[in-house]
């Protein structure tokens, strides 16, 4: 499935397959948001597939937010695909849902 990033109010929903073919789009989009906003809200609730490259991009975005003292909220713990991938790759620390 193709990947879309849809803005819903102040939240950006990642929808579809967050895999190698789509990671550049996600990285560029969220890096641009972090260049312009102090807080960015990302939802992974509608991601249907994520691979190692998708996880790496999330780690990169998370690191950039921290380096720049920006706040990155990441929703998606309820998505079993995301939760299992985060647990397997030991990146559950990326979740920040207290928006």
TrEMBL record:
Any Pfam family the entry gives: STAS
UniProt cross-references to InterPro entries, sorted A to Z: STAS_dom, STAS_dom_sf
Protein name per UniProt: STAS domain-containing protein
Record-annotated STAS domain positions: 1-99
